[in-house]
alpha-glucosidase
Amino acid sequence: MFSLKYVAFLLAALVVHHPTLGKANEQTEEMSSVAIDNEWWKTAVFYQIYPRSFMDSNDDGIGDLGGVLAKLNYLADTGITATWLSPIFQSPMVDFGYDISNFKAIHEEYGTMEDFEALIEEANRLNIKIILDFVPNHTSDQCEWFKKSAARVEGYEDFYVWHDGKVNESGEREPPNNWASVFYGSAWTWHPEREQFYLHQFTAEQPDLNYRNPKVVEAMDDVITFWLDKGVSGFRVDAVNHLFEDPELRDEPPSGKTDDKLSHLYADHIYTLDWPEVYELMHHWRYLLEDYTERHGGPARIMMSEAYADVKLIMEYYENDKGIKGPHFPFNFFMLSDLNDKSDARDYVFTIQKWLAYMPRNHTANWVMGNHDNPRTASRLGAASVDAINMLVMTLPGVAVTYNGEEIGMQDFRDISWEDTVDPPARNVGPENYKEVSRDPERTPFQWSGEKNAGFSNADKTWLPVHPNYQELNLELQMSMEKSHYSVYKELLQLRKNPVLQQGRTTVEAVNRHVFVVMRHLKGHPSVMTIVNTSGQEQMVDLQHVLDEIQQLTVLVSGTNTIYDKGKAAMEIMELYLLF
């Protein structure tokens, strides 16, 4: 028996080292029956940069490519070897880069193509791979493609989804069906020049492309190749399950979640999401990437996909029943969607095991606990959870994803005023309800230091306000401390080089309803165990049924509030007290 005492709020974790476990789990090497694939991405930490909020190099209050370039050394020093940039393409910025007017140009607020090329050159020097956010579902209504389509220019007539609509009893023309935008309201907007409705699953300024038109696929293939030629290592593909819709445009049935017919929650989206053709397009783009790599050489160019869907539908992105592969991995959002501050050990174990159980054999798992669309870990699960969550994500098998700022425990700024709010869905619902849906709080500028605007910019006003806690919570301060969220995070990235964490089998088990363990085993190597206490109370646990032939546990990484330091050995389990 030993005690796990957690004195703050939610989670406790400690990564320890057990030298005898590998001998007791020889059958666990079954997962390595196929030779370990040493492609770079399979054990990478992908660091998501939201450029608009990362670093401002020209003091206009907006982050830019020059700012990213200036901070590449920080990423390298931390141990990051891959980063993906949220959209940097030319855009009217209605949805802050997800409404693209030119897929082959850099948005002027972010810099120039020369700035991007300099970024690639420096990233290559530092061995950091650059992944771009690819947004294929729609364009901006300012895109030349859309303008030509609206004008019925030959070759562009069917680049988008157009429809005459229907005439109601009053003789008024209305949309062809009840489809609603993700951002509220009808998913159809009337275009007076073309005299037809066009489909937009997001804002009216983001018309959906028509992928049933081969010319659209060809155009996007060309975009992908353009950026591969520029030196990027792959793409994060946005909102992939929106790419195809029912060609018959049938009404979607009510979901029963709300009576508001303009809400995206009103309908069960059986005609606008997860159509089989989506997977076929992903297979096509996977082939394009592999063919490019084969022809040009170098490390694998990869694709990771974003879709919020049922786990069985998500797993189809890995490969279909014929073994045809899609994205190298679909993002695993279940730790974002299914876990909260009320979750206990059983919930965590179930969520982790669900992904591992459904994932096709010989594919790579991934773990996401934050991004620009969801509340930050410290705000969603509690500030004391930061180290524990980073430990968990970094010691699970496969890819780990970090949203910029999670390494220092940044928090959402929930008190952004209506006047300072810029997020489209928040603006759509109005000043009474905007805080319920706004994504601005998790997008505030990175907190580099305690200086003006947290060291992000010297401008008098930044595009979003800086969180007022920046003087107490910033990178510079944490770097000066003997132990901090940042130092723990950096240690974890070094620990991930351990062969056990790169190749070993994973066992996840709830010791009781409050405590669970993640064990990584690899024959011939000392095993690694992460222990997590999900309660706010001290827990006495017996690990005898989890660990065989216990002889010694050695602390590899410990959180900011623990009494144990790295390298400390607990010869007797009774002596091990974990304080977080």
